[in-house]
Amino acid sequence: MGAEAKLDSIERREEGDVDVEKEGEEEKSFEELGLDEQLTRALRKKSVTDPTPIQRAAIPLILSGKNVVACAKTGSGKTFAYLLPMLHELLRLSSENSLRKSAPNVFILVPTRDLCHQVYSEASSLLEFCTNKFKIVHLMATMPIQDMRVALSGPPNIVVATPACISTCTSKGVLRASSIRESISMLILDEADLLLSHGHEADLKALIPHIPRSCQCILMSATTSPDVDKLKKLLLHEPVTLTLSEEGQSNSDLIPGNIEQYWISCSAHDKLLYIYALLKPKPRLLAGKVLIFVNSIDMAFRLRLFLEKFEIRSAVLNAELPQNSRLHILEEFNAGLFGILIATDDNQSKEKDQTSRESQVQSRSTKKKFRQNLDAEFGVVRGIDFKNVFTVINFDMPRSPAGYVHRIGRTGRGRNTGTAVSLVSPEEGELFAKIKIMLEGDSRDDSVHIQPFPHLTKKAVEDLRYRAEDAARSVTTRDVQDARHQDLKKEILNSEKLKAHFEENPRDLDLLKHDKILSKTAPPSHLRVIPDYLIDPTTKQVGKALKLSRAAVGINTAKKRPGFKKGFGRSSDPLKTFSAEKKKRRDNDGKDHRQKKKLKVGE
Ligand SMILES: Nc1ncnc2c1ncn2[C@@H]1O[C@H](COP(=O)(O)OP(=O)(O)OP(=O)(O)O)[C@@H](O)[C@H]1O
C-alpha cells in the first residue's frame, strides 16, 4: 500500500475492552508468521512477498484459535488474511489425521456468487504445492440439486457459498444440519458488511443455531456498520476486533491512502462530453485500465455505443449476464485484453429489471423469495478483485456513501496506486456532500481527500462539445435497446456453448473478446481522429507531462488499446470458426496461430 499502515495503528479490542494495544515495530514475513511452507511457496509464485498490515495482525490471531472481527479498507488483502491461517490449520489437522469427515470442515460465506468463484479460485491457487489434496467446492443456489449432491459428496473440506445457497442445501436435504454441527471447525463470513444488505439475514439466522460454540468464527469487512455489529453479536463469542487505520490520517479508515480522488462538476447532460474528454486517446489523461460505474444497464450500453463512435472500445459488465459470461469478462479484463470496462452495481435497478420480467409467472410469495435471491446472488462488483485498475470513474454517482467506498476500492488494490474521478451533476450534489462529510471525518478539510480534477481546462472540454454532442445524438434509445439485447443474446449463447470448450482450452479465452463493436453502423470518419486544432494547448502540455510521469513509474503508455478492425467487417466468431482441423493444427505444433495473431492485434 502507498500510505503504509503500521501495525501499531491497528486497534485490538477484546470484547468489552477498548484499550488500544500497541504492537511495536515488528514486521514479520509470512514465514515468520508461522505459515506452512507449502503455502508460502504458493505466495512466492504469485509474487506476494510481504504480508499487508491486516494479514500481519489477523494471521497470528486466527492461528491461535481466536474468533476475529477484522475491519480493513477495500483492497487491503483481507482474503489471504483468513485463507492462509485457515488452510494452515487444515494442513495441520490433516497431518495429524484429525480432520472430521462427516461434513465440510470450513464454510466460507460471501454475499454474491461472483465472490464465491473468486474466493474459490484464490483458495485453490494457494493449495497448488500442497501434498494433501483438499477438496474445495463453490456452490450456487441456481445449481441443480443433483450437482449440489455431487459437489458435497465426499464431503469437501471447504465450501464457499452464499448463505442462501446453504439454506437451499439444508432445505433440500443435500446437507444435513446435524452433520454441519458435528464437523464444522471454522466459519468465515467475508464481506460481512454486505451480507445483511444483500438480503441474507434470514438464511444466516437459520444457520446460526447449527454452529457449535467450539467453531472458530471469522468476520471480515471493509467498513464498520450496524450490520457488522449485528452479525458480530449473533455469531461471535468473545471476539478480538481488529480495525485498521493509517498513520497520520485520522479519517482515512475507509479509502486507502494510495488512491487519489478527484471530482468534476458538470450537468447530467454533459457527462458524455466529459467522459470523452477524459478517455480520448490524444492526449491521454488517464493511464492504464479504466473501470466506469453507471447506475443502469441502459446507460452502460448508451455509454459503450457513444465511445464506439470515437473508436474507443469497452465492454459492459452487468447483472443480467449469465455468470459464466461475467466471470469471463472479468478474466479478460484482469488479463489486460481490453482496457475499459463499464459496470453497473445498482441493486435497485437490477431488481426492478429482473422482477418485471418475471412478474407474469411468479406468484406473490415466490416473487418475494425471488427478489431475495436476486439480492443474494446477483452482485456484480462489490468485493470483486479487478486486477490493476488504474482509474475508477463514477459516471453516475453511487446511491450511498458506502457504495462510493466499495466502488473506489476497485482501484489501488494490494500495493498498487490508483485514481478515482467522479462526475457530479447538480442533482447528485446532496449525495456528494454526504460523501465529503464521510471522508472529512474530524478534519473538516475535504480538499485533502477529494479534489477538483486538475487536468481538464474548460476550453479543452468546450472544444470537444460539438463532436461529442453529435455522437451522443446519434445513439438512439432504440440503438441502446438493440445493443443490450444483442449483447445478452450473444453472451447467453457463449455462456452455454463455450463453457466446456474453455474448460478444456483456457488459452482460447481471448477469442471471445467482450469489447467487440456493437454499433450497426461504422463510426463516422470525422470522429475517428481528433484534429490538432481541437486539442487545447494546456491539455496537450498536461498530456505530455502525464506521459512522462507514467513512464517514470513504469506505466506503459505506448501500449495501444485494442483497435477497431479495418473495414468494420465481420470478426471471427469462435462459434462459427471452431473446427476439429484448426484444433488439430494447434495441437500438432503446440502453438495457437490464431491466438498469436489476435494477441498482436490486441497489444
Ligand atoms: N501481501 C500482499 N502483497 C501484495 N498483494 C497482495 C497481498 N495480499 C493480497 N494482495 C493482492 O491485493 C489485492 C486485494 O486483495 P483482497 O481482494 O484480499 O482485498 P480485500 O481487502 O478483500 O478487498 P475488498 O474489501 O474490496 O474485497 C488482490 O489482488 C490480492 O492478490
TrEMBL record:
Every Helicase ATP-binding domain range: 59-242
Ranges of residues in domain Helicase C-terminal: 271-461
Catalytically driven reaction(s): ATP + H2O = ADP + phosphate + H(+)
Top EC class, one word: hydrolase
One cellular component (GO) term of this entry: cytosol
Stored Pfam families: DEAD, Helicase_C
CDD domains linked to this entry: DEADc_DDX56 (cd17961), SF2_C_DEAD (cd18787)
SUPFAM superfamilies: P-loop containing nucleoside triphosphate hydrolases
Motif Q motif: chain residues: 28-56
Record EC number: 3.6.4.13
Skewed-composition ranges (Basic and acidic residues): 1-31
Transmembrane segments: none
One Gene Ontology molecular-function label: ATP binding
This protein's record includes keyword Nucleus: no
Comp. bias (Basic residues): 593-603
Start and end residues of each stretch annotated as Disordered: 1-32, 349-368, 560-603
SMART domains assigned: DEXDc, HELICc
DEAD-box RNA helicase Q domain span: 28-56
Source superkingdom: Eukaryota
Keyword terms, alphabetized: ATP-binding, Helicase, Hydrolase, Nucleotide-binding, RNA-binding
Recorded family membership: Belongs to the DEAD box helicase family. DDX56/DBP9 subfamily.
Name of the protein in its database record: RNA helicase
Biological classification of the source: Eukaryota, Viridiplantae, Streptophyta, Embryophyta, Tracheophyta
Name of encoding gene: LOC109705699
